[in-house]
Automatic annotation (TrEMBL), chain B:
Family membership: Belongs to the binding-protein-dependent transport system permease family. CysTW subfamily.
GO biological process, one term: transmembrane transport
Top-level division of the source organism's lineage: Bacteria
The protein, known as: ABC transporter permease
Species this protein is from: Candidatus Enterenecus faecium
Amino acid sequence: MKKLAIAALACVLVGGFCFSACTIERIDPEADSNTTATNTGKRVLNVCNWGEYIDEDLIAQFQEETGITVNYQTAESNESLYSLLKNGGANYDVICPSDYMISQLIEEDMLQPLNYDNIPNYSYIGDQFKNLAFDPNNEYTVPYTWGTLGIIYNKTMVDGEITSWSSLYDDANKGNVLLINNSRDAFGNALIYLGYSVNTTNEDEIRQAYDLIADATRRGVFQGKVMDEVFNKMEQGNAAIATYYAGDYLSMYENNSDLAYVIPEEGANWFVDAWCVLKSAQHVSEAEEWINFMASTDASLANMDYIWYASPNTQALEKYPEYYKETYGEELDPELYEIMAPSADVLEKCENYVVLPQETRNLYNDLWIQLGL
Amino acid sequence: MSLNKKNSLGNRILIGVVFFFLYAPILLLIFYSFNAADSSVVWKGFSLRWYAKLFQNQLIIKSVYNTLLVSVLATLIATVVGTLSAIGLYSMRRKFREPLLTINNIPMMNADIVTGVAMCLFFVAALSGWNYLASHYRLIIDLFGTQYRVTFHQLSLGFGTLLIAHITFNIPYVILSVAPKLRQMDKNLVDAAQDLGCTWPQAFFKVILPEIMPGIVSGALIAFTMSVDDFVISYFTAGSSTSTLAMQIYSMTKKGVTPEINAVSTILFGVVLVLLIIVNVREIRAEKAAAKRVY
Amino acid sequence: MKNKRSLLAIPYVGWMAFFVVAPIIMVVIYAFTTADFSFTGENFTRMGTFTVIFTRSFKLAIIATLVCLLIGYPLSYAMAKEGKGFQRVAMLLIMLPMWVNFLLRTYSMMSIMENNGLINQFFAAIGLFDLINNVFGTDIHYFKMIGTQGAVVVGMVYNYLPFMVLPIYSTLIKMDNTLLEAAQDLGADTATVFRKVILPLSLPGILSGVTMVFVPSVSTFAISRLLGGGIQMLLGDLIEQQFLGGAYNPHLGSAIALVMMVIVVACMWIMNRFGEGEEQAVML
């Protein structure tokens, strides 16, 4: 009896595991043995995007149109996305990293080339977003959004206008500054302030940037290290200054009109986030359908309206002010539109991140950990 | 324990203050689940709109479902396995029992994050081994002249690994609360039952089980509570495609928790509260009835 | 017969081998290897850099544990003195908050303690800041709570207090009343009874309460992140960062986890020496 109970228990456990781990099917000698290889059943797609980075109605619309079930997940930053991928715990098909991370993923052979025949909407992507450093031959990516990383501040909490990155590090707003919680952006801002390139590999320059931030941390300038927590903190007036992305500023501005956005005089970073398909993806055709859907003009317009990030789709970019007028019955403030999709002469001042060599990345990691000490 | 007759006022105040500290944040979040505004600070009038919105939010509904499913399954399995193992362990000689109990205590005494990362590393290694085999081999079984093909799927972290992790950290709690009852039990009872002609299963169900039942129930209760409240271990073992309520909340704490989460927590809290009240009222009634019978 | 019954534990022994022992072996392997799995001790030599985080984590955890004990013991004592009717619900009242996810409770704490949160709004409403500013000539509009170590300790105490109360309370209510009466009859005053009888008898509860508060406090990462603003990392943050956060290096992360585990186990071992001979961990 006991043996039976043990055996039964073992069977249940092993059986349960096997049930999810394999399928057993009868081999029909007449049928072609290859037919079983094609996927039957429902189509699935695992997407990983940033938080607050899509009009969620679009997911529903995509599911309805294609019958594909979307598992939509979010990651916090490029670095933590990389950890998720490397750690092996994730089974994403399609991801949306930023420029420099894309290069790194390509370098480590983690992405697969796309079949652009399945993505006809790629033709709408503006030329200035093609052949960029991270994907020089347009093999792996379809750009999703672009924008700048600048300073957001609360006009009622700060004296005068902010024009320089120095406001992040000096004592004027001690205890009310939010540091961005990823190494690349945090060091990038400091490097710009110091007058160096954001892509420098000079250890001395990076260490100076580190010292700048570490010193400010010691003096208690920063209230916290945040990524998407910034929304609440800034909207509710719990902090005065933060660095964050232009699109997100516009979302915050909707809820708190005391906030202002500035690209400091020293310049800033401009970024492109693009869809890519992982080498380990198991749903490639679904992934390409997703990318194509997201690149369409309608989806781009809906997204621009919802997340306030500019789309690289030229038609959508052109039409957006008109779309806004139709939807809300009032003109889009050109100043806001300029923040969303800055003109060429503003972009001129801004620098794009490129991937850093392994050695520099290790230095970034080490210094970043030390900042938390 | 009741040393002196009456509880002093000071003690009562202490109890009151601490319970206020424990419950104030909860009451606050329940309060704001009825807020018309999208905020946990500004009150803009009573509304049930977050409850309505909650049922349209697939992400939250799915994560609540996952949480309840994994907690119920893990509790059931852990309770059965834990109870049987406790009986087994206490029938062992001390020499074997002591080291096994020490290992049993590891998941309970170890920091959650260590258990979490350890399991994460282990699962990822085991799964990548499995996936390698699965992509290179295929099994054909010949059963009574018909051939069956067994195709192995590619596996990744998900509900299965989440469940295993929850079972693993639940079992020690069950064993821990069953063990004292086993120790208190008169060892001769089982022997007596068997001498009187009981088979072992009969002895188990009629003698052992009723004796240790309170331990099993409280073990199951703790296990279930731990499962529902767990975040850290789930975070490391659930992978990317499965998400529990705790994980959902964690990702939301970054961009701002919407009052829908307050609403779902209020509902869960309310259900538990009602259940506990019902159970308690029934117990009190049963006790009163029993008391009447005695007199 | 008796020994055959021990076979019932076999499946679980197998389970433990797989899911308890093997994962810890994995951590050890990772801790002693580099990214390409060749042996190295470098992960441990780097540990010196993190001394600050180790000290900070242990300091905050010890403070939180002490505060929990200082609140939890009198509370359990007071609760144990209440009547039967209260005792029935006491345990449930302590456990009930755990049914609202701790992250959400912590988040609620955060909105209470923000610069613009309820506490500061309350102080502003009763004119406390005006008073302070008038008296001291300062210019403050809020007390800074979020982002301080104090807030982290408050969060730990708030979350883990039930873990201290439950075991102490359950040892106290199980205590044999006749023992206390006997002590009093023999001439001991209340304080002596407490010191010589109640305290030693409740020691197992205290020890397991201390363990159950200290261990999660020293390794938390969500609480420090929400209430501490993430500026001053704790051990939990440091480990999380190496696995799923912004500085991927599971080998270093494993080494830190291993060192933390060893220190915690050593602490527990030393502490349990005091309670040797007592029943092991109690909860309900």
